[in-house]
Design brief:
By secondary structure, the protein is an alpha+beta fold. It is 23% helix and 50% strand.
Length: 179
């Protein structure tokens, strides 16, 4: 049975350049560090994805989102950071930078990534998330919570808009297959 082993290490990669190459435009800026060691066996790509094992970690620093990362592995985190920036702009009437840092790690077992320690830190608040991403079956089940910051903007959101100090979130989806 054919097999593949890969070890990848990226340090302080320019996110704008990466997204420009993937999407044709830089929809976010910041730096990405990523490490992973993966292995798979199978007679087809689908078999290898379903057998994928390994682990990895990532760190996003100074993430500032100007547009959608739709169609990339970054789509979820970019959308979250962009939403906080838009929310802050809507409450204050001023443009908000969406600067954030995010980190996490995963363990891959038979094509399913388990994420248990995702963390997000931004001016709007700090969040955590955990869940699974089933690559072979194109499904995702992730939930988390965001605790609003003690900044003036965070307090405006809690007091003026009536938002709770901690916002639960959950995400279950069938991922869209790219052709």
């Amino acid at each position: 049975t054919p097999s593949a082993d890969a070890t990848v290490s990226i340090e302080n990669a320019n996110i704008a350049a990466m997204l420009s190459a993937l999407l044709g435009q830089p929809t976010a800026t910041g730096a990405l560090s990523f490490e992973t060691a993966l292995n798979a066996r199978g007679l087809s790509v689908a078999d290898m994805v379903a057998a994928l094992d390994g682990k990895g970690s990532f760190l996003l620093k100074g993430l500032d989102v100007q547009g959608s990362g739709k169609g990339t592995a970054f789509a979820g985190i970019l959308g979250l950071v962009q939403s906080f920036g838009q929310l802050g702009s809507g409450l204050t009437g001023q443009s908000m930078d969406g600067l954030a840092d995010a980190s996490g790690s995963f363990v891959m077992n038979k094509g399913v990534a388990q994420i248990g320690d995702f963390r997000l830190a931004s001016g709007m608040g700090d969040g955590t998330a955990a869940g699974s991403i089933d690559l072979a079956n194109w499904q995702m089940d992730v939930s988390g919570a965001m605790k609003m910051s003690q900044s003036i903007l965070g307090q405006i959101l809690v007091l003026k808009a009536g938002a709770p100090a901690e916002l639960p979130s959950g995400f279950q989806a069938l991922l869209i297959r790219r052709r």
